[in-house]
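Hello Y.,

Per our agreement to keep a running log of every chain we model this quarter, I'm adding this entry. I've kept the format consistent with earlier entries: sequence first, then predicted structure.
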Amino acid sequence: MQQSHHMLKSQIDTLYAKAHRLLYALDEDTCYADTLGTLRQQVTILVNTLIKQHSTNPEEEATLCLALLLGLIAINDNERKDTIITRTIKILPQLPPTTLKVQLLTYLHIETTDPAYAHQARLIATTCKDIPKSIQNDIMQVIG
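Predicted structure for the entry above:
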């Protein structure tokens, strides 16, 4: 069971990193079409592998939702993105005020344009001492 947990975490971390890289690849100086195509294919495979996974641990489930949400945004899969948004909304009340929760709230705000998510993210980001200043600044740039 521990190996399964470790493998799931590894896949979640890989999806998050690759999806983040794909989303922000256009900001890099060296952005090649074949590299983007390969990265998109890798993200798609990881999304397809992980989308059926669930965790009974709220934090791990939230981390999985964040990685999936980023992956689905990166590959522009709006149909499945709505499913993950619903799943994310269900897990939010179980999460303590952490960086992970702020990240989820921020992406929910971006994807749904619901100001309540921005308000909640802003509140946590500005009052929780555990949120790094760099994250607070990034969040404030995104949600205002």
